[in-house]
Prior knowledge:
- By secondary structure, the chain is α/β, with parallel strands linked by helices.
- It has nine helices and 15 strands.
- It has three domains: 3-94 and 182-191, D-Maltodextrin-Binding Protein, domain 2; 97-163, Periplasmic binding protein-like II (D-Maltodextrin-Binding Protein, domain 2), CATH 3.40.190.10; 204-282, Alpha-Beta Plaits, CATH 3.30.70.
- The protein is 27% helix and 33% strand.
- Helix 6 packs parallel to helix 7 (161-167).
- The longest helix is centred in the first third of the chain and has 12 residues, at 18-29.
Amino acid sequence: MAEDSALKIGYQGAPGAFSHRAVKIFAEQINRLDEVVPVSCKTFEEVFNRILSGECSHGVIPLENSSVGSIVANYDLLWKNQAIQIVAEIYLPIHHNLIGFSDTDLSKLTEIYSHPVALDQCRSFLKEFGEAKAVTYWDTGAAVFHVKETGERTYAAIAGQFAAEETGLTILRANIEDFSGNRTRFGVITLVNGENPASPAAPVKISCVVEIAHQPGALANLLRNLAILGVNLTKIESRPIPETPWHYRFFLDIEVPFDEIVPAVATTVGRLSEAHKILGCYKPWQEAE
């Protein structure tokens, strides 16, 4: 693969992390699997910075999880970085596994490593190993690499199947999450007016953030005007405005059935807010047949 044809996509985590898997799914979706180069980042902010610097053309970040809700840090970063937009979304089933060496004796486990969110999603399973200490780690995939590097047969990690494949370790117990329907929604981000390999087509989803007047009926007025357009509001969430105590920004996801309505939605959001940003206009995720 020639360097100039590579599509570098940043993600937070180590190889084998769920975000890494989401990068691969996006690459398959746009038929550019051979061109995509996943770029591991320590933090979400690093993903944004690598896009802004031009080191990566795209990034893949988690937006919300069906069990724990929104990843609020990323919504704040989307508002802060006005030059970055969402161009696609990916829904990924999250199945956690206990991963370690093939000759590990589960009855002798002393430490189980994983990201704190993953540990929280496997609380029922962890109760089976009351003697083992749950140890937080910065990433699920990195936790598996850590276990491999230590060589300790009394250590294990909780992560996805992809992490086991990346490290060559063994899945000791599969699907240990508390809720079998656990899923995470990821956003594919890039520079505004940058290359978008997944061009939207009706129906589309518009993600936006608004600051509205702090007065009775202001939010209701915005929602009423959107309803008149015949769109479907699938998400609304408030986030505090740090510099203005007890005032809030509202993050919205709006499903728009026809391309012709998109300009009217954008106009309505701008007209009825004091500040706003269209975070992205993109095709809603569709499960593979």
